[in-house]
Amino acid sequence: MSVVFGGASIQLARVFGIRIGVHPSWFVVLFLMIWSLTGLYEDVVGKDAFVLAALSSFLFFGSVVLHELGHAVVARRNGIETQGIDLWLLGGLARLSRDSDSPGVEFRVAAAGPAVTLVFGLACVGAGYAFAGATSFSDALAFEEDGRVGAGEAVLAWLTWVNAVLLAFNLIPGFPLDGGRMARAIAWWRTGDRAKATRFASSLGQAFAYLLIGYGLYRFLLGDVLALAWFGLMGFFIIQAARAADMQSRITARIEGLSVADVMDGEPVSAPAYLKLDRLIDEYFLRYGYPWFPVVDAGGKFIGVVSRQRAESIPEQLRATSSVDEVTQFDLGNAHAVPLDAPLESLLASEGLHALGAMMAVDKDGILRGIVTIDQVRRALRPSEPVA
Questions:
Q1: Same domain, 213 and 95
Q2: Which residues have C-beta within 8 Å of that of residue 73, sequence separation ≥ 6?
Q3: Are 268 and 183 within one domain?
Q4: What distance in Å separates the CA atoms of residue 277 and residue 328, rounded to the nearest whole number?
Q5: Is the dihedral of CA 259, 263, 264, 266 positive or negative?
Q6: Which of 253, 272, 305 is the endpoint of a domain?
Q7: What's the alpha-carbon Rg for the chain, to the nearest Å?
Q8: Are strands 91-96 and 271-272 parallel, antiparallel or unpaired?
């Protein structure tokens, strides 16, 4: 799924500069998956069941990461950055920095994940038939328990089936599933109204979620307690995510067309990198009372942030000979910089904005031109006051 989503996670790696993390709930799913697959492989293969189960589980989650990377790569090509990819209780989530700005972009980003899953599933089928032969791999796909299935084809068969299920589930036309996002793109294209299309796709998503919950209740009445928990949880998540997406669409409609330059403070107070720390404390921190200042080089280019705490950590007797750049937290990866012409909407999911409380607006050359604070963004999101 490709959604704007937040939450704490544990970083595992970076791929193409995109943070890959896992939510603590992922470990629960990993344990349950390995436990259930161990029993399956004991029946089908008969040996090394735990190793095969662990391998299959990690390969499956690897395919989920590839699915989300499909969203992320296509989003990046269309000017939308990805805050990160998180694995969690119900699969994977690509946290996009902002919503799409056209139906075509929305459709391409949404379709990229299922396309990757389809290719991965077909690769598993091709590898299975190539290495095991038609008869043996067909037995593996049927999970025959007569001992004729080898370890390799059993893993490939399971990956084929689970990715087929993943593909079918994500193509269901209910927001926030990928199929729902594609449905929203089509509705947006037909109506020309993103908010109306989002409400339509959100309603589809909630309807599908209630069907899931109903199916879980049906299975519960047949004695399957786990089905109620699993389908109920999925249904609850989809309902909440669909409602949140609808609400976010209504909010972002208020700032559609606004850029960072429209709301920023165009006269930012910045500290030169060459300034001595004693003057920094006297002329900046004591004068203005701010907890931090942006730091610029001799040409006015934004290079980082200096905080009062870091400046005062230098012994007083050394401050007259120490300069600001020695205690600057350099803005590696432009974590606190945003282009002047960036849509204001792109700041809503900005980790830098929420961590620092502001972002530095820079021109194409990196020159600091303004500061946009979280309060300015909040004011822009408020409904317009009626005119008396």
A1: yes
A2: 16, 112
A3: no
A4: 11
A5: positive
A6: 253
A7: 26
A8: unpaired
For residue 368, what is the DSSP state?
E
Whole-angstrom distance, CA of residue 139 vs CA of residue 265? 67
Task: Please name the amino acid found at residue 11.
Answer: Q
Other beta carbons within 10 angstroms of residue 249's beta carbon come to 20
Q: How many domains does the chain have?
A: 2
Compute the distance between CA of residue 370 and CA of residue 292 in angstroms, rounded to an integer: 15
- Whether 243 and 295 map to the same domain: the answer is no
Distance CA 75, CA 113 (A): 11
List per-residue pLDDT tens for the chain, 388 residues long: 544 444 467 888 888 888 888 888 788 888 888 988 888 888 777 778 899 999 999 999 999 999 999 999 999 999 888 878 888 776 788 888 777 889 999 999 999 999 999 999 999 999 988 887 877 778 778 776 655 667 788 889 899 999 999 999 899 888 888 999 999 999 999 998 888 888 898 899 899 999 999 999 998 898 888 788 888 888 888 888 888 877 777 777 777 778 888 889 989 999 999 999 999 999 999 999 999 999 999 999 999 999 999 999 999 999 999 999 999 988 765 778 889 988 887 787 677 787 888 999 999 999 999 999 888 888 887 765 443 3
**Predicted TM-score (pTM) above 0.85:** no
